[in-house]
Specification:
Elements: E1 19-23, H1 30-42, E2 47-49, H2 68-80, E3 83-87, H3 91-99, E4 104-107, H4 109-112, H5 115-126, H6 130-135, E5 137-141, H7 148-160, E6 165-170, H8 188-196, E7 202-204, H9 206-210, H10 216-225, E8 230-234, H11 252-261, H12 269-308, H13 316-332, H14 337-367
Parallel strand pairs: 1-2, 1-8, 2-3, 3-4, 4-5, 5-6, 6-7, 7-8
Helix pairs in contact: 1-2, 5-7, 12-14, 13-14
The chain binds phosphoenolpyruvate and manganese (II) ion.
């Protein structure tokens, strides 16, 4: 289904450039919702987000306040004039959110992975009177799994319901094992989405990609370098006390600071290709770090073996042999021999440090 004839995401509303959507992961109390919203409005943010129903991985976690929190969103609208956004996953959520005057609905990553749920939402949207549907903005997060077709399928279902203020949110993809990112961004996928649906606005969610406050600024800049249309950033008046996703939430003041440091690239082909190349470098660096971590894990296993068999940690014969073979390979790949010696010696030094740590641990255990 071609997705064309889209309308601006927010009608005639004047938006910041880049577009910033901000607010807490969850609306937790009236005070937390209003405090956060007022600080954001004062910082110039025009769209407020807050989860009312929270899809948690396991039962027993904070699953959102539910229906009563919708009243707080109405108050935010009234008191700040901001547009308000929340996540919907069922027919009931859509009815209740619309009844409360919510302007922007987003479909979460777990829901967009489920065509039955997306179709249920699409059917409600299709049944709305035209004027009501035309005022509404719907954003579709990528499904948790890296499946571009499933993401496009979800967008097509909402588009097929007649929604024309339609956008996508890139929030990274679930991945097994330890990673720098909570949900690795796999930038190739949103870039391919943009190639397939060039008119569709794409907003980046650095909060759920990074999972940590420290990663938000650099992920946001990367997204702008890749010509994303906006950012959705989890912001809380007191992040350390947040009931969900606290490690990734920032205060409205920090948000304002981060936004002030962002540089919007010039709209030219040359910056776009430069951004693509930089994005490749970022990805390769991440892979390098993960490979190094893997190497250190093996080095620690070797450390345990050496300890058990009372072997010395440093074995010079092995080290010299390893160094020479690696340097020869690097030179055959057009790298400088001295550079490769430095890299290998730094890696070796860290392996030795980790193995010595293991030996020390065992000694200490024996003493206890
Ligand atoms: C959220 O935005 O708070 C959320 C639950 O996100 P996601 O669906 O991307 O996990
Ligand atoms: Mn969240």
């Amino acid at each position: 289904m071609p997705i064309t004839d889209l309308l601006p995401l927010f009608g005639d509303e004047k938006m910041t450039s880049p577009l910033i959507i901000a607010g807490p992961c969850s609306a937790e109390s009236e005070q937390q919702t209003l405090d956060t919203a007022c600080a954001l409005a004062a910082a110039g943010v025009r769209v407020f987000r807050a989860g009312v129903w929270k899809p948690r991985t396991k039962p027993g976690g904070f699953e959102g306040i539910g229906t009563p929190a919708l009243e707080w969103l109405s108050k935010v609208k009234e008191e700040t004039g901001m547009l308000v956004a929340t996540e919907v996953a069922t027919e009931r959520h859509v009815h209740e959110a619309l009844h409360a005057g919510v302007d922007v609905l987003w479909i979460g990553a777990r829901t967009s992975a489920n065509p039955f749920a997306v179709q249920e939402i699409a059917d409600v949207l299709a049944s709305l009177p035209d004027h009501r549907r035309n005022q509404l903005t719907v954003l579709v997060k990528n499904p948790v799994n890296p499946d571009l077709e499933l993401w496009i399928g979800a967008l097509e279902r909402i588009y097929g319901a007649g929604v024309r203020r339609l956008g996508a949110i890139h929030r990274g993809f679930t991945s097994y094992g330890k990673h720098i990112y909570r949900n690795p961004p796999k930038w190739r996928i949103p870039i391919e989405l943009h190639r397939r649906l060039p008119d569709l606005p794409i907003i980046c969610d650095p909060s759920h990609i990074g999972g940590k406050r420290e990663l938000i600024a650099s992920l946001s800049q990367q997204a702008l370098d890749m010509n994303f249309d906006g950012l959705i950033i989890e912001t809380h008046s007191n992040p350390d006390a947040a009931l969900s996703d606290k490690a990734q939430q920032i205060t409205p003041e920090v948000l304002q600071y981060i936004v002030s440091t962002l540089v919007k690239p010039e709209q030219s082909t040359s910056t776009e290709s430069l951004a693509l190349l930089r994005q490749q470098i970022d990805r390769i660096d991440d892979e390098l770090i993960e490979i190094l971590a893997k190497r250190m894990r093996v080095a620690r296993d070797i450390g345990r073996f050496k300890k058990e068999h009372r072997m010395p940690v440093v074995q010079p014969g092995r080290y010299n042999d390893l160094m020479q073979r690696r340097v020869d390979t690097a030179v055959s790949l057009d790298m400088d021999a001295e550079f490769m010696r430095n890299v290998l010696s730094a890696i070796h030094e860290e392996s030795v440090r980790q193995q010595l740590e293991i030996c020390a641990e065992t000694l200490l255990d024996k003493q206890l």
